[in-house]
Each structure stands twice: as structure tokens, then as C-alpha cells.
Amino acid sequence: MIRFEHVSKRYADGTTAVADLSFEVAEGELVTLVGPSGCGKTTTMKMVNRLIEPSSGQIFLDGEDIATIDPVQLRRRIGYVIQQVGLFPHKTVLENTATVPHLLGWQRGKAGERAAELLDLVGLDPSVYGDRYPDQLSGGQRQRVGVARALAADPPVLLMDEPFGAVDPVVREHLQNEFLRLQAQVRKTVLFVTHDIEEAVRLGDRIAVYGAGRIEQFDAPAAVLGSPATPYVADFVGADRGLKRLTVTPIEPGDLEQPPIVHLTDPLPKAAARLAAEGARWAVVLDDQDNLHGWIVADAAATASEGTVGEHARRMEAWLPVGSSLKRAFSTMLQHDAGWIAVLDGDRFLGVLTPAKLHEALRRSIDADAQDIARSDVELQTVADA
Ligand SMILES: Nc1ncnc2c1ncn2[C@@H]1O[C@H](COP(=O)(O)OP(=O)(O)OP(=O)(O)O)[C@@H](O)[C@H]1O
After folding, report:
1. Any idea which of 39-53, 180-194, 225-239, 339-353 has the lowest mean pLDDT?
2. Domains of the chain (ranges plus CATH)?
3. Tens digit of pLDDT for each residue in 88-146?
4. CA 78, 82, 88 angle in degrees (round to 5)?
5. What pLDDT is recorded for position 246?
6. What is the pLDDT of residue 239?
7. How many Å lie between the centroid of ligand 1 and the Cα of residue 9?
8. In angstroms, what is the span from residue 43 Cα to ligand 1's centroid?
9. Which residue has the CA at smallest separation from atom 14 of ligand 1?
10. Phi first, then psi: what are they for 219, rounded to 5°?
């Protein structure tokens, strides 16, 4: 969808911002460009919508050399979101969102409808926020309007330059998650600039790690974290790779423990006997449809001689869908101050993740990586020997 072929940019003062870049972003793929300040990320991005012209090389959009496309026409095919958002202060949120459809000459009503639809999509109720002005919004809400505006004319490509850079870490994580959900729906081809490796790992289908003016590694997040291509990447990714692996390692059914299970309608003595027989201190409580309700502790079950489990069960709020990252599991545990969390497949209870199991899963993931690295070393050695 977007292809760079030997692209370089030298500014008038002699600064080489990027040199000989070649890479490709597939349709519907989200590629993050990550690297320290001044390494050429923004220059790369601005060459795609021709805010900056390359000194040499070619960039193709859907097979077409963008140098041959009129810049105004080109920019209509490309949504652009920047950190400063750049909303018009004297226009309402709805008018701001409808900017591009207006420029494209859409009927007023149609443009307004589209803008409202987009605001809804980014989680802003148009009936609440549509008539507000940008200074009546929080920083996070302004960023959402920026994303809605970039998507309004339904461009196939989205360029995002540190779009969540100016908000605090909690709002940032929120916006990242919302954006991932949104991207799963709209499947745009996205180039996303960030200097934050965590953000790059969380959002990117693939990551381009920039050194000074060049890409040091272009790979899937797990590969960048697990087998950095150069010492520079290893250094940039950081020494705490184990922690970062939390982000890319999913909870798998095999990671889960199976505690005793009782049902809401079970008589208490029966549940108590079950717990005693298994030597368990607590059991998971399911409802009649086998959906998660909560848990019951052995003491509560043993001291009451009548009634049902439902009368003594506690609700369980700490749960996650299977496949969620270990990082989410960890933060859910902390947030609920829970010693374990329930893992579900849809509504179906699969088992529980405990801190010990979480640690095991993390170890497994790091070890698998180490083996991968060892294997690729061996392969390189074999090639060198041949
Ligand atoms: N108009 C310009 N004239 C001269 N040099 C420039 C110009 N714009 C950028 N540069 C230089 O080109 C290099 C790459 O800049 P660029 O903005 O692409 O980096 P970046 O990776 O996006 O950095 P940051 O994360 O700080 O935004 C830097 O050394 C910068 O100083």
C-alpha cells in the first residue's frame, strides 16, 4: 500500500534526515516508527503526504508514484493526526470533524451526519460534545476529535505523528486501547510515529526501529523485543525486556489453574464437603448457565450448615478474556487487589491465573525467545561455514 524505495532527505543546510529508506506497509497494516528525537521519523511521515519532498528515491501509494499525484488530491486520500491536534478554536467539535467532507464539497447534511457517526466511533457522544468548542474539551477528548476528523472522509491511509504524546499516561493508555478497537473496525493503513517503545509495541503490527536517519530493524513487536537485530536496537528496547514481554505475551489456556467449581444453587454442605475433599481454601462459583459469578471461601462454606452457595458467594470483578496480555492480567490483579483473576472464553469460564502462573508464563515466553535467538545464531553460523 505504501512503499519506500531508496528514499533520502537532505535539508538545505546539509542535514541528512533520512538516508536510503526502503520498506513497505501492507494494506490495513499499522506500522509504528519508533526512535529517539531527531532520527528522522517525522521527516519520513511528512514525505508520504508531500509536506516534505524527498531529495532522492520514490514513494508509492497503491502502486502509484506519489510525485506524480497532485499534493491536494494526495492529501484527500491520507488522514493526518498530529500531537497539537490543530482544531479550529472558533468551530464546534462537529464542524471541526466535518472539515474535510466540507472541503470535498459534500452536502452540509451529509457532512454533519458523517461527522456525528465518526464522533460516536471515537467514543464522543455527538449530542453531548458536538456543539462544544475545542477549549471545552479535555486533552484526551481533543485527540479523539483529531482522530475523528482524520477519518471523516474515509481515507485509506492514516498518518499519525505522536498523536497521544501530549496526554498523561493513564489517558494515553486509554486512547491507545480505543484506537486499537477502532483500527480493528476500520482497518486503515497506518504509519504511527512515537518515541515510546511501549506504545510502538502495543500498537504496531510491525515496528520500524530508527537509528540516526535509517531503520535498524523492521519486524513484529515480539521479534523486536525477543531478538533485537543490532546492539543499538537491544539498547533502545532496553534491559527490562522481560517486563516488555508482558505486553506481547498472551494468556493461554495452558497457563491456567483449575480450582474446584461450585454452583450458585448448590447446597452449602455439599460445597463445603467438596472443598474439604480437595483441600482447597476457595472455589469458583458459576451460575446456572455456567457463567462466572464469583467465589466462595472454604470457611464461609464450612461454618454455615444450611442455605445455598449463592447466599455466601462474593462477586468476582477481576476477570479477562483469554488471549489478553500478561501485562493486562498483572494490572487487573493490582487494580482489584486480587490474588488471582478469572479467565473467560466469551462467557465460558476457563480457569484462573495466579501470580505464580503469570510468572511461569512470562518465563516460558522469555525462554522461547532465548531459544529463537540461539537457533538463529546457529543458522547464521551454518551459513557462514557453508
Ligand atoms: N527543515 C529542516 N531543516 C533542517 N533540518 C531539519 C529540518 N527538519 C528537520 N531537520 C533535521 O532532520 C533530522 C530529523 O528530524 P525529524 O523531525 O524527522 O526527526 P524525528 O525523529 O521526528 O524527531 P522528534 O521525535 O524530535 O520529532 C533532525 O536532525 C532535524 O534537526
Report:
1. 225-239
2. 2-239 (3.40.50.300), 253-360 (3.10.580.10)
3. 999 999 999 998 888 777 787 888 888 998 898 888 899 999 999 999 998 888 888 98
4. 95
5. 82
6. 52
7. 10
8. 6
9. 40
10. -160, 175
Answer yes or no: is the C-beta of 43 below 6 A from any ligand 1 atom: yes
2-10 β-sheet, strand order = 16-25, 2-10, 56-61, 64-65
d(C-alpha 285, C-alpha 47), whole Å: 57
Mean pLDDT, rounded, for 312-333: 88
Q: Whose CA is nearest to atom 31 of ligand 1?
A: 38
Q: How far is the CA of 213 from the centre of ligand 1 (A)?
A: 9
Q: Residue 134's pLDDT is what?
A: 92
Mean pLDDT (whole number) for 341-350: 90
Look up residue 313 and give its three cell numbers: 458467594
pTM of the model as a whole: 0.68
Ligand 1 atom nearest to 9, measured from its CA? 12
Residue 289 in contact with ligand 1 by CB distance below 6 A: no
Nearest-Å Rg of the Cα atoms of the chain is 26
Q: What share of the chain is helix, strand, coil (3-state, %, to 5)?
A: 45, 25, 30
CB 57 within 8 A of CB 4: yes
Whether ligand 1 lies within 6 angstroms of the CB of 204 is answered as no
Cβ 15 under 6 angstroms from ligand 1: yes
Place of cell 497494516: 29
Question: 54 C-alpha vs ligand 1 centroid, how far in Å?
Answer: 13
The Cα–Cα gap between 136 and 142 comes to: 9
- Contact residues for 156 (Cβ-Cβ < 8 A; gap 6+): 1, 27, 62, 77, 188, 189
Query: 251 and 322 in contact (C-beta within 8 Å)?
Result: yes
11 Cβ closer than 6 Å to some ligand 1 atom: yes
| C-alpha cell, 120 | 460516536
